[in-house]
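User: Write out your own:

AI:
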Amino acid sequence: MKRLLLILFASLAVSGCIRPESDLVARVGDNVLRMKDIRGLLPEGVSPADSAAMVQQYINTWALAHLKLMKAEEMLSAEEKDVKAEVEEYRSNLLNYRFEHSYTEARLDSTITDEEMRQYYADHSQSYKYPYIIAKARIITLSQNSPNYDIVKKTYAATGEEEVAELRELCTSYAERYEEFGGNWLPMPTIAKAVPGLDAESCETIFRGGDRYIKVGDGKDYFIFLTEKVPAGALAPYEYCRHSIADAILINRKQDILTQLEQDLLQEGVESKKLIIYSADE
């Protein structure tokens, strides 16, 4: 509390808006900002200068919000200040959203079988063709002065089980980094980000016709090998698409629930006479 008092006093002493023994920090018209409102603002370990700046910024933000509102009340016409329709529309939209969310969540079956996902994948294959390479990658970062440099350069694109095991063991001990990304399929932009100095566009060009590349760096090189690759524009592997397929199925289920809800509400409204639709000649 004492620290906050000192910071507030330092921030506002010039304006004379606060006394160190007062609980009031600032006032705009009938609106007041009190010390308790900003007591939790300051994190531990912040310098007095930074603390004072943070407090001053908070006070300015608070004051401007109220000053703008006062100015709006002064300058806008009665018609412009009439926001009842907008408020009611916002309230209606918010209540409808909350109702629909609660209704669908209570009825949504979130269980999705692998068979169902594979069928969706087959039926919507055009939706899973992406404009970039998708691949499984191996990336090794190695010092150019490493005594194992030539061995790694010769074997970084190994595919045999024993060769890969030996390469992995060697790199685990001597390379700066050995990364296989858990054997997951990755989009080329993600692979490119793993190597300094590369970008997705250049990687697309490099790997369009090949599966290996050595990026020469400053004192260390990056050995990149695509253990599996799907060209840009081709159907992405099912494993890569699983999450988006599941999301799409759930979205469709929610939409089906809402569509049925709307049909039921219309029917219920007519039967209960809450909804009356007049014909043109009535």
Summary: The chain has a mean pLDDT of 90.
